[in-house]
């Protein structure tokens, strides 16, 4: 370290004082003092070297302290930055997980909606198909009903025509066999015979027969009062030969035999 040195010593010399008597002047002159300049320069050089060393040492000390401070500051700053980075990474990971969860939920919702849409489309197609089927069935039913109406109308017209032709003959049969006919409903007729019982000519004997809808359909006896013998045989002959007048005669004869046995 620099320390102040003593003042450079001077080589002792004598000062010569003299008076200028040339012009009777009172001016005094002091002679020049001689110094040892080499010694002064040497000591000055030593002083400068020591001072420069002091400056350099001070600068080195300051530089070292600055480096230590910068290192400490960098470590603290680095630790802070690292903590911030870790926190940011954690936040980013959390946000990524949340985004993935949201996307998965959206995918599930979209899949559910697509399934519901597909089911509704399928149901819509099924309903549409059912509606078309029902429309076709309704149209077919309408056509079938119309055909049946036309067929019934044709039958009624044919029956009316046949009745108009058979009415005189039936009237003759009724007068001859003493019976009356009553239509209960379509294709069902009740025949009532009188003049069977000798003691009570007005007492009726009757049966109800169902006529077939078709030309060669089977006749059926629905009711017979009083019950007579061989009814099934008489009905079978009617279904075989289709001779209704003969059937009426046999029915009257069967009722008459029953009345004779009932005396």
From TrEMBL:
UniProt entry tagged with the keyword Transmembrane: no
InterPro entries from the UniProt entry: Spc25 (IPR045143), Spc25_C (IPR013255)
GO biological process, any: chromosome segregation
Function: Acts as a component of the essential kinetochore-associated NDC80 complex, which is required for chromosome segregation and spindle checkpoint activity.
UniProt keyword Nucleus present: yes
Domain spans labelled Chromosome segregation protein Spc25 C-terminal: 185-255
Protein family membership: Belongs to the SPC25 family.
CDD domains: RWD_Spc25
UniProt feature coiled coil, ranges: 103-151
Protein name from the UniProt record: Kinetochore protein SPC25
Subunit structure: Component of the NDC80 complex.
Compartments reported by the entry: Nucleus; Chromosome, Centromere, Kinetochore
Top-rank taxon, per record: Eukaryota
């Amino acid at each position: 370290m620099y320390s102040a040195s003593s003042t450079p010593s001077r080589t002792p010399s004598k000062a010569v004082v003299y008076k200028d008597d040339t012009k009777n002047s009172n001016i005094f002159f002091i002679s020049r003092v001689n110094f040892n300049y080499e010694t002064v320069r040497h000591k000055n050089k030593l002083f400068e070297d020591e001072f420069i060393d002091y400056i350099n040492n001070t600068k080195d000390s300051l530089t070292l302290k600055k480096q230590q401070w910068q290192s400490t500051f960098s470590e603290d700053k680095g630790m802070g930055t690292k903590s911030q980075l870790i926190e940011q990474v954690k936040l980013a990971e959390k946000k990524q997980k949340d985004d993935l969860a949201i996307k998965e939920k959206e995918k599930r919702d979209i899949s559910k909606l697509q399934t519901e849409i597909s089911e509704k489309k399928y149901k819509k197609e099924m309903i549409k198909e059912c509606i078309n089927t029902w429309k076709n069935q309704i149209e077919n039913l309408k056509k079938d009903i119309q055909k049946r109406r036309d067929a019934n109308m044709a039958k009624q017209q044919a029956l009316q025509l046949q009745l108009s032709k058979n009415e005189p003959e039936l009237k003759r049969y009724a007068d001859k066999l003493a019976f009356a006919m009553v239509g209960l409903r379509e294709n069902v007729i009740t025949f009532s015979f009188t003049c069977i019982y000798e003691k009570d000519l007005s007492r009726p004997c009757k049966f109800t027969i169902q006529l077939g809808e078709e030309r060669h359909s089977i006749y059926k006896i629905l009711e017979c009062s009083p019950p007579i013998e061989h009814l099934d045989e008489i009905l079978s002959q009617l279904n075989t030969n289709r001779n209704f007048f003969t059937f009426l005669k046999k029915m009257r004869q069967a009722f008459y035999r029953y009345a004779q046995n009932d005396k």
